[in-house]
Amino acid sequence: MNFSICIRVFVLIFCAGMLASSPGHAEKRYALVIGNSAYQSAGVLPNATNDAQLMATAFRAMGFETDVLVDVTEQQFGTAIDAIVDKYDDTDVVAFYFAGHGLQKDGKNYLVPVDSALKSESSIERETISLDTIIQIIKPIPISLVFLDACRNNPWADRMIQRSLSGSRSASVKRGFAVVQAEGDMLITYATLPNSVASDGSGQNSPFARSLARHMRTPNTEVSVLMKRVTSDVMDETLGEQRPQQLSQMKKEFYFRETGGGQTQTDDLRALLTVYPAKVSVGQEVSVVADVPSACTPMFVNVTPDNKLIPIPRKFFRQVAMDSGQMRYEISPGSRYGLVVQDSDAKGIHQLGFLCEPPGMTAKKDIRNVLKSVVSRISAGQAQGMLDTPGFGQIEYGFKDFEIQ
């Protein structure tokens, strides 16, 4: 199956709408999310800010008051973590997520702001944020969760290590993070094993962020069990090259989402879509993973650079019922029906995604109008959200871009 074949198949079956909800939370939750991509002296990490935005949406859907900061300087970083002190009296759970560069020196770990120059090993303590400092700041809060999607390829660490080797001395700086001791009811999770390098991801998000955002929605799953599932996903996607690591002394159990009685609230993370890699050439395959509410019957469409619509029938997707109650639709490389790029496929930026089929809509005119409205939204920069369909209620849609070179 490829995009050229797909354009000849336009069978639309509309049968179900969509409504999703997640339980409210009595406890007070706060998340600080930081994504650093635009490093002034180390180039760009394309996905770090994307990962921060994805995780901010996930935390908010789970009832966390969330601050998300991107491309923060040393001063901004310090101000943000210092502000956590003001939340001691009324916060039950704090989460800290960081995507960007990190390194270790003499067994201690440091997170790197975007304005760090790091011209020498001695500058590390002055120009970075110590993980030990963050641990001490969040420790007084009853439950604390730290997620470090850092330790991606680090030019400063590589340069310092090479300089040490050329001088025939042992390097105090190492790639990746060193093992740390969690304190109290604290979980610290590395996106990869200590002393190892994590992947920035071939799509729009890192493997760790994609999986964590998915599994946070799984109801009635204790966080240590949930992280085992994240580990399994990341290892599968990276063919075993990256394995997340949990460091914990937690005695209390924590659940991102518990079902049962109580007040409910709208789930801002209704569906999650991944399209990767971001750039493909003729002969390569495009992968799609969409987790949608069980009440949503998704119609998958590729929008070409000249706004032509290429439907991708659901039968081409592997469908799996998730523990969260959602359905996963997946096309991956090597599957029976692959999305293989052909010579005839238009070059440029494509938008691939889905919309939930409006229940009861069968008239071709109505179908065309809905598709036209979705394309207009995408063109206006609104690649995901809810669309009002007169007479048929709201439907969810979501699209991601990729480029055919």
TrEMBL record:
Record-linked Pfam families: Peptidase_C14
Gene3D superfamilies: 3.40.50.1460
Stretches assigned to the Caspase family p20 domain: 27-155
BP-aspect Gene Ontology terms: proteolysis
Keyword Signal: yes
Signal among keywords: yes
PROSITE patterns: CASPASE_P20 (PS50208)
GO MF assignments: cysteine-type endopeptidase activity
Signal peptide feature range: 1-26
InterPro entries associated with the record: Caspase-like_dom_sf (IPR029030), Caspase-related_regulators (IPR052039), Pept_C14_caspase (IPR011600), Pept_C14_p20 (IPR001309), Pept_C14A (IPR015917)
Name the record gives this protein: Caspase family p20 domain-containing protein
Organism the protein comes from: Shimia litoralis
Sorted UniProt keywords: Signal
Record SMART domains: CASc
Domain of life the protein comes from: Bacteria
Family statement: Belongs to the peptidase C14A family.
